[in-house]
């Protein structure tokens, strides 16, 4: 066994649109990702999540595989359009039944279910009515969360409201890399507010003594490329948009004023001060999805390219600096110690709040050898180094309670389609055959021997 404390949670994560497929079955309605993926040019390999890993039909096999890796927790997401196909209207019992079967199968295998209520698949009719740029969506999210929790709280005790609202807001409404593919400039910050409000409203609606509720964010340590004033200011702006814009309202009950000023959104946000107590409703835990740090500098001159909208409205004039670190296939620099930095950053703001690493992993261009092996040495090393950092931060006194690898099995990696594999388990998309990679075998040995 590992040197981690008793009760430390070991799991793997997935998300509905990335694995389920079965997009038109049993009454599921369309989501923004169905629309986006079916729009030519949006997904690098022209693929969609129509079939994905066929997890909707193969979930029992997948949960058995997860348990066979020595993992005892499964973080999955619930597709809002399966539960309420139009987003706001009749509930679809077949959709709820699927998640009941999934949770019950977990429990039969000694696996604790951790459900995320929103991992980006907004029902399309809600986007047509304004999406996350309008307040109504936050209220519809609360209703969906309450219905889902009421139906499943006997089998699911651990809940997350949102996954990575930074991506929903800035990639969805900022630079159009994600669904719904809109470029709204600084108005993407309205999506931030409505997502956080939805989180707070749902948290209040779900609160019960048996339920543990949190959120999964993707904060990243931001380093200045040099100690120059300009580079430090670039780091301040990047940190503001990536981290403080989410952590401050959630944990401190206020928005960072410099970010609102940089983006010209001060007046818009001033109207909604009354939402902050809702947004900062105390959580039971905070999930950190960590992949890589950012190192930024100020450019020598203006670099804004008006043809390419910025992901970070208000911080267009930033350059990402290559510090020479090795990178994964996503181009993300590998710096395990930064996982410690990000966990300490959150812990400094909320010293008693239990933390989980709710995602961590790496994409590499895996190859299947002639004898059917996937010798993913780099992924194994990535996981091992990051798990070692988890151990160090626990020794340092941080309340880190669990680690979820991203991801159980290769799946639809959003705008990259199936061209990026993060799984502990390889998926042959032609046959749907699952094969445990060497990283998965390593993790099983690490956890069980
Ligand atoms: O695949 C995604 C996941 O859906 C959210 N966090 C990052 C992962 C890798 O890009």
UniProtKB/TrEMBL annotation:
Q: Where is the signal peptide?
A: none
Record-linked InterPro entries = GH (IPR017853), GH_1_N_CS (IPR033132), Glyco_hydro_1 (IPR001360), Glyco_hydro_1_AS (IPR018120), Glyco_hydro_1_beta-glucosidase (IPR017736)
Gene3D superfamilies, alphabetized: Glycosidases
The annotated active site, in chain numbering, is 359
Enzyme class per UniProt:
hydrolase
> Does the keyword Cell membrane belong to this entry?
no
The protein's superkingdom reads Bacteria
E.C. number(s) listed in UniProt: 3.2.1.21
Q: Which PROSITE patterns match?
A: GLYCOSYL_HYDROL_F1_1 (PS00572), GLYCOSYL_HYDROL_F1_2 (PS00653)
Keyword field: Carbohydrate metabolism, Cellulose degradation, Glycosidase, Hydrolase, Polysaccharide degradation
Q: Which Pfam families match?
A: Glyco_hydro_1
Record's keyword annotation contains Hydrolase: yes
Q: Which family does it belong to?
A: Belongs to the glycosyl hydrolase 1 family.
- Record's protein name: Beta-glucosidase
What's the source species' lineage? Bacteria, Bacillati, Actinomycetota, Actinomycetes, Propionibacteriales
């Amino acid at each position: 066994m590992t040197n981690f404390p008793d009760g430390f949670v070991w799991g793997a994560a997935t998300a509905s649109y990335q694995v389920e497929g079965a997009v038109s079955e049993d009454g599921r309605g369309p989501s923004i990702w169905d629309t986006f993926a079916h729009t030519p040019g949006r997904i690098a390999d022209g693929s969609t999540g129509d079939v994905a890993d066929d997890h909707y039909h193969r979930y029992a096999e997948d949960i058995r595989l997860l348990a066979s890796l020595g993992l005892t927790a499964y973080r999955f997401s619930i597709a809002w359009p399966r539960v309420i196909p139009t987003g706001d209207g009749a509930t679809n019992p077949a959709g709820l039944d699927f998640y009941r079967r999934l949770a019950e199968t977990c429990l039969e295998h000694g696996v604790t279910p951790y459900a995320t209520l929103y991992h980006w698949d907004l029902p399309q009719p809600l986007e047509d009515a304004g999406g996350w740029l309008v307040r109504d969506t936050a209220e519809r999210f609360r209703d969906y969360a309450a219905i889902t929790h009421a139906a499943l709280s006997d089998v699911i005790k651990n809940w997350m409201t949102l996954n990575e609202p930074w991506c929903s807001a800035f990639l969805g409404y900022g630079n159009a890399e994600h669904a719904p593919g809109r470029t709204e400039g600084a108005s993407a910050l309205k999506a931030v507010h409505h997502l956080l409000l939805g989180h707070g409203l749902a948290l209040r609606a779900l609160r019960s003594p048996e339920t543990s509720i949190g959120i999964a964010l993707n904060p990243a340590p931001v380093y200045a490329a040099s100690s120059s004033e300009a580079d430090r200011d670039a780091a301040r702006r990047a940190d503001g948009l990536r981290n403080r814009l989410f952590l401050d309202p959630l944990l401190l009950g206020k928005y960072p004023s410099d970010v609102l000023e940089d983006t010209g959104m001060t007046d818009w946000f001033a109207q909604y001060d009354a939402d902050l107590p809702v947004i900062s409703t105390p959580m039971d835990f905070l999930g950190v999805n960590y992949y890589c740090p950012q190192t930024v500098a100020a450019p020598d001159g203006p670099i804004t390219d008006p043809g390419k909208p910025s992901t970070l409205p208000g911080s267009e004039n930033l350059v990402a600096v290559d510090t020479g670190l090795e990178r994964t296939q996503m181009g993300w620099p590998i710096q395990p110690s930064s996982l410690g930095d990000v966990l300490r950053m959150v812990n400094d703001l909320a010293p008693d709040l239990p933390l989980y690493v709710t995602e961590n992993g790496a994409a590499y261009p895996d190859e299947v050898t002639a004898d059917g092996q996937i010798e993913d040495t780099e992924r194994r090393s990535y996981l091992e180094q990051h798990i070692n950092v988890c151990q160090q931060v626990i020794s340092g006194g941080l309340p880190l309670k669990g680690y979820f690898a991203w991801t159980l099995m290769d799946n639809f990696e959003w705008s990259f389609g199936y061209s990026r594999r993060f799984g502990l388990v390889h998926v042959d998309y032609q046959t749907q055959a699952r094969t445990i990679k060497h990283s998965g075998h390593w993790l099983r040995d690490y956890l069980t021997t």
